[in-house]
Amino acid sequence: MKTREVELVVGPREPHYVGDGFRVHNFIPSAYRLDMQRMNPVIMMDYNSKFNFPPSVRPKGVGVHPHRGFETVTIAYKGKIEHHDSSGGGGIIGEGDVQWMTAAGGVLHKEFHESEWSKKGGEFQMVQLWINLPAKDKMSKPKYQSIANDKINRFNLADDKGEIEIIAGEYQGIKGSATTFTPLHLFNAKLKEGGLATFSFPTNFNTALLVIEGNVVVNGENKVPTDNFVLMANDGETFTVSADEDSIVLVLSGEPIDEPIAAHGPFVMNTRAEIAQAFEDFNHGKFGFLED
Fold this sequence. Notes:
It is a single chain. By secondary structure, the chain is mostly beta strands. It has two helices and 26 strands.
């Protein structure tokens, strides 16, 4: 199999706040050749790098807002989030957990620091992804997958050098816990110092890495520090990630959805007319009801 090379290594951009509870670096879309099509079906990545939030009686977060046409995936590394949506989904996700919300035809939702965690404050570290849906599924029924860390399947690396958490897709014959609409692999590679993992995806699958903790080397030559994003080229299948110290790497790879993308604010559809319809439907209360 031909080696998949590194196309680009990107450091974190200046952070900005989403609401008052998420201090994020935006990697996708961005100015680094990373528009929504380049990593499609992963069309957005916000990364709340490790940040200490002071105690707050009023939980910080994002109030009620709509989504249509895609899925949101939130991966918790530090801290706790409480989520509610108008389709009845919701709950608390803590360290190591994953929340997978399929907005599809339309939901209202809100996300806040979990109330008891907020009162104490502490380190907070999260990734939120937007996963595109094909046209045939964009108006399907919303759903919600709550994936506790102890329900995530794992592959143990040789010599006790770490493990691969398989959130979605498949690694070494072990399938992930989440269901997806199109082929998508989403892993947490938790490597101990000196650990090495090999990954292989079809050449056309758009593939990237985000170093959550530690420092790693890709393909034995590309050093990547904490909080940096790696875009892999579509020129091969197999690559390696090794750890200079105990590290956590988020690995994403998915089959592109070969359809137009029309995006505006909280809606991602295929045409501008569908975006206009989404705003009209939202303004007429067709996304349900959710208290702020």
